[in-house]
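Retry 2 of 3 after timeout on previous attempt. Resubmitting structure tokens to design endpoint.
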């Protein structure tokens, strides 16, 4: 029977015990401990909880009792917020545990879990958990789902995972942007990986996260469309997927331009009609203060306002997606999907990331969410959604892998073609012209953010396995066009396929072992050796929301 010490915070032991008791058959023991039993038969597991209200009592308990896990309730009290991390229950208990003399520790760092709430202190506490290499954290396990919302993992599911009494979590695919060329590159990578997967294909994964061009692929994959069908459909069209034509992507944004011209004309007329009674003395005084310069500035400012939010309207892309996602058994509704789909966008006016598919952002059509995620100014204008103006998700996030982890992913496969050209010759970028130089700068910013996020990824998410595919060498040289280069560049897809296939063969032992921990079996399609079917069981479909593994 696993023994768990629970250091209470915002709620007292009886209140916490009552919440945990809802997740199994529970009974309070005469000693004041809580016993919770879950499962039946061989999967039946009993948990023993020891509750303490202060860090001092918890430390004393740990000095005399052997426990399997320590849960520290670090959720903030909105009525009496903690002044700093040191004032929280974790801030009080951890220094006591690390300060024990003689090197002996009652529990290891991997046996400690923080219970957190989404809010202002979440980022700080997650950072501390990673920096201290703690076992993990659980976010809002006791929050009741709203009507129609998918229930969360609860409390005992992630605890069971940390204790090793539960199988790993979900499989996630995260796709970034990169324009049309990036989309084609991603298809080539996915085609290669799909051929190596034996018992579970890519469209059978649990979670799909997409940003910009990757959002378009993710929408189809989450609807159960196989990779091979996607490639054939986008290129030449099939019975179930229409080809993507130039008119879909490059329909001029004339409507907005006409609207801006009309607004300019109205403003000009208002200025003329309103200025007839103006004083000549006032005009002369304005000229004496630099009126000519101001007038020139007004002209420049007016002309700048004439420029539309995007060269192309993007309406036909939205219509195309809506038509494709409502045929052949597919759906354009987040709530009706059998898989989880999360589309990243950016609120243009606040600069904050938005994730369509999460709570509060599930009632927009998938086609609208993808159109918003692809709104890379100045190519496409913002997409009005939820009373806000949404633009490309790459402005604030690269792949949204943290979203996948938050929803229970334990194996995250990332394909990120949005990588700058690594030219060895000085001036190679400048010689390509200003447009390419600007694109190189954007790619450098986005990719540096991605690299920074992965700098301490193992410490922050020790329970999660990552497999990342990035273009390199010849692949990068092929991805040197504009983001909107249309024609289906077969060489990019073929090159990505060949390089990914070679990499999978070269790194097969390590990748196969990593995937095998999550129930996936890999085999070289050219190999004639039989597949070993005695590997780990398939991944569970339950969504444990814990970001680490007990060591």
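Retry 2 succeeded. Sequence:
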């Amino acid at each position: 029977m696993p023994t768990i010490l629970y250091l209470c915070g915002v709620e007292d032991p009886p209140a916490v015990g009552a919440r945990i008791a809802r997740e199994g058959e529970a009974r309070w023991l005469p000693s004041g401990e809580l016993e919770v039993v879950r499962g039946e038969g061989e999967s039946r597991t009993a948990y023993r909880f020891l509750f303490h209200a202060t860090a001092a009592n918890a430390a004393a308990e740990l000095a005399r009792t052997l426990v399997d896990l320590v849960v520290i309730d670090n959720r903030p009290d909105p009525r009496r917020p903690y002044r700093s991390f040191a004032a929280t229950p974790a801030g009080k208990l951890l220094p006591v545990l690390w300060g024990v003399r003689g090197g002996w520790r009652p529990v290891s760092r991997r046996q400690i879990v923080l219970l957190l709430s989404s809010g202002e202190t979440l980022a700080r506490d997650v950072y501390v958990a990673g920096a201290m290499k703690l076992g993990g954290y659980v976010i809002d396990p006791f929050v009741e789902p709203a009507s129609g919302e998918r229930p969360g993992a609860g409390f005992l599911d992630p605890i069971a995972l940390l204790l090793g009494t539960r199988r790993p979590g979900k499989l996630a695919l995260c796709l970034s942007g990169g324009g049309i060329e990036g989309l084609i590159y991603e298809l080539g990578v996915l085609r290669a990986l799909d051929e190596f997967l034996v018992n579970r294909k890519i469209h059978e994964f649990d979670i799909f996260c997409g940003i910009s061009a990757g959002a378009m692929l993710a929408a189809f994959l989450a609807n159960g469309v196989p990779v091979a069908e996607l490639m054939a459909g986008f290129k030449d069209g099939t019975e179930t997927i229409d080809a993507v034509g130039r008119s879909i992507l490059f329909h001029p944004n004339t409507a907005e331009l006409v609207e801006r011209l009309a607004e300019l004309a109205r403003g000009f007329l208002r200025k003329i009609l309103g200025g007839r009674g103006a004083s000549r003395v006032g005009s002369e005084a304005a000229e004496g203060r630099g009126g000519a310069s101001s007038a020139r500035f007004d002209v420049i400012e007016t002309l700048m306002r004439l420029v539309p939010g995007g060269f192309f309207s993007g309406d036909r892309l939205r219509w195309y997606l809506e038509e494709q996602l409502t045929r052949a058994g597919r759906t354009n509704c987040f709530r009706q999907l059998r898989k989880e789909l999360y589309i990243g966008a950016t609120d243009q006016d606040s600069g904050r990331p938005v994730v369509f598919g999460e709570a509060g952002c599930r009632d927009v059509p998938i086609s609208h969410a993808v159109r918003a995620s692809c709104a890379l100014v100045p190519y496409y204008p913002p997409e009005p959604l939820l009373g806000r103006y949404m633009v490309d998700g790459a402005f604030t996030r690269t792949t949204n892998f943290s979203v996948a982890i938050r929803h229970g992913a334990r194996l995250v496969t990332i394909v990120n073609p949005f990588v700058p050209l690594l030219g060895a010759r000085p001036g190679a970028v400048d010689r390509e012209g200003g447009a390419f130089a600007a694109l190189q700068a954007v790619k450098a910013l986005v990719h540096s953010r991605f690299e920074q996020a992965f700098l301490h990824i193992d410490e922050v998410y020790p329970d999660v396995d990552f497999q990342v595919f990035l273009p390199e060498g010849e692949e990068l040289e092929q991805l040197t066009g504009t983001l909107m280069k249309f024609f289906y560049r077969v060489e990019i897809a073929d090159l990505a396929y060949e390089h990914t296939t070679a990499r999978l063969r070269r790194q097969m032992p390590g990748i196969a072992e990593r995937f095998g921990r999550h129930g996936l079996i890999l085999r070289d399609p050219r190999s004639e050796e039989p597949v070993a079917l005695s590997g780990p069981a398939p991944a569970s479909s339950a969504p444990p929301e814990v970001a680490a593994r007990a060591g």
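Attempt log closed. Residues 100-104, 277-289, 530-551 have pLDDT under 50 and may be disordered.
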